[in-house]
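Researcher: I'd like a candidate sequence for this fold, 154 residues long. If you have to choose between options at a position, lean toward the conservative one.
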């Protein structure tokens, strides 16, 4: 295996580089995934309470509840697998689960002119930056995993 910091060849069983002393198994996107995972989980809990508070009939409850569970699932998976480089592709796909309904609702609201400026600001400052930062963390882990697997082949 090759050190990602100084390109020193080191044995596969070592976790630290003998030349620079840095941890070679550390995931570069783990902090991104931890922070955005916590934010996603908190947002999911807030959305669960919001969907329970707005409960008028079952059809009005189920879609927001599923949507909030997607946010919590994505957040918990980000926290749990933040250091697992081999789970990076799974995390990049998982972040699309809560993001795609947000984009769809936002586009429908813009097309039908029923979205308010307040909802638009919330969408652009909460619902989009969190998944984008989550994806950045997962992508950093993916690049590190790809680099490690390429150096193991040689």
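Model: Candidate sequence:
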């Amino acid at each position: 295996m090759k050190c990602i910091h100084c390109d020193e060849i080191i044995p596969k069983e070592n976790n630290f580089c003998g030349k620079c002393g840095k941890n070679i198994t550390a995931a570069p996107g783990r902090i991104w995934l931890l922070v955005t995972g916590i934010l996603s989980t908190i947002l999911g809990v807030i959305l669960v309470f919001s969907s329970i508070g707005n409960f008028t009939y079952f059809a009005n409850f189920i879609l927001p509840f599923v949507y909030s569970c997607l946010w919590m699932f994505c957040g918990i998976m980000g926290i749990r697998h933040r250091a697992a480089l081999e789970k990076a592709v799974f995390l990049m796909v998982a972040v699309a689960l809560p993001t795609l309904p947000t984009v769809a609702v936002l586009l429908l609201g813009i097309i039908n002119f029923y979205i308010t400026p307040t909802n638009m600001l919330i969408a652009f400052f909460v619902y989009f930056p969190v998944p984008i930062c989550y994806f950045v963390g997962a992508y950093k882990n993916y690049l590190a995993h790809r680099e490690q697997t390429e150096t193991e082949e040689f």
